[in-house]
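seq as requested:
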Amino acid sequence: MQISSQGHSRKFPGWVMFIACGMFATAASAADPLWGAKMLSLNGSELGAIAKGAESHIESDGILHVRCLRGVEFGSVAKGTDTLVRVVVKNVFNEEIQITNLKSGCSCVSWDEFKNSAVPAAIVIPSGQQRVLTLKMDTVRFDGERKAKATIFLMDTVHRQTTAVEFPVTAFIRPDIVMTPGSVNFGAVAVGSGAERKVDIHYAGRNNWKITQTRVTNPNLAAVVKELPRLNDGQVKYELLVTLKPDAPAGTVRDQLVMLTDDANNPQISVLVEATVEADITITDLQFGTLAPGQSKAVNLIIRAGKPFKIEELYREKKANAKLQDDAFRVKLSTAVATLQTLPVTFTAPNVPGAFEEVFYVKIADRPQPIPFKARVRILEQSGAAKQ
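struct tokens:
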């Protein structure tokens, strides 16, 4: 790849390339009854982990049902808290997969995606892509031990095979603990700013109940609890102060912190924490679409910022199994200082068929960390290109 600035050209030091071809398999829905379960990741688990130990059977509706032993464990949660889990459905197959329905076996559990539609529209997941679903536990209308199940209906659109993946959902909703608000939601926070939020915790029970510790695994978060004066009336109050650190990188923060108590039966209380850290500089990825060998296409790289900036360098890392030449991409750098910069990037497709996703970096003046962006393109085979 070459850069032209003030009439001079030079090559990139290297690049990173990812070849998508060959990474997917046929769904083979008839051969593998657990194919649907192998697409799921629950609460940060490994993709397909719930398929281990699962059993399959055909029910009266004619659909292959997969019953999983592994599922979602919310643990002990305070009444009124926002209790949810993200369920990732990743299409690792060549065929298009659709989520045709979402169900729960109890009104205490609901899916965000289908809650307002009696006849929901199918959710399409193309090959290689994923969809994140939200499963919620109702801690306002319910309390105590809750055991339910959730079901995701998936259809292989090529072989017209449908499977229903069932997994258990459990929680213990404590009526003696109330949190206000029900979660820690920072909303949108500018990168480098950081933020703090406070949660009031009210316990009704024994006078000597204590929160002994807070446990935070996310390096972008910190939390402390402060005990308020006690009145010996069985009412115990704490303040939970959660901090989003200023060095949190741009992106979504969605995690849970845990408060440890001296209650032997239910020693842990989980608290949902969410934030969107917005970058001070944003870059749109480049989409070149499908090109034939020898064909060129120019796409604008758009960079926005809250204050004027100057581009120092544009580069990509070297990778040993490089398939494209360094001059496949060409761009002319701007010497301007502005809040919005548009750089035309031209890609000329070599005779190397396949789907490519490359990671590039923009170095901004007076900014220590470069900003990544991606460029995607699919190159046809020479024979396929000749037919078009």
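The two ends are 28 Å apart (CA to CA).
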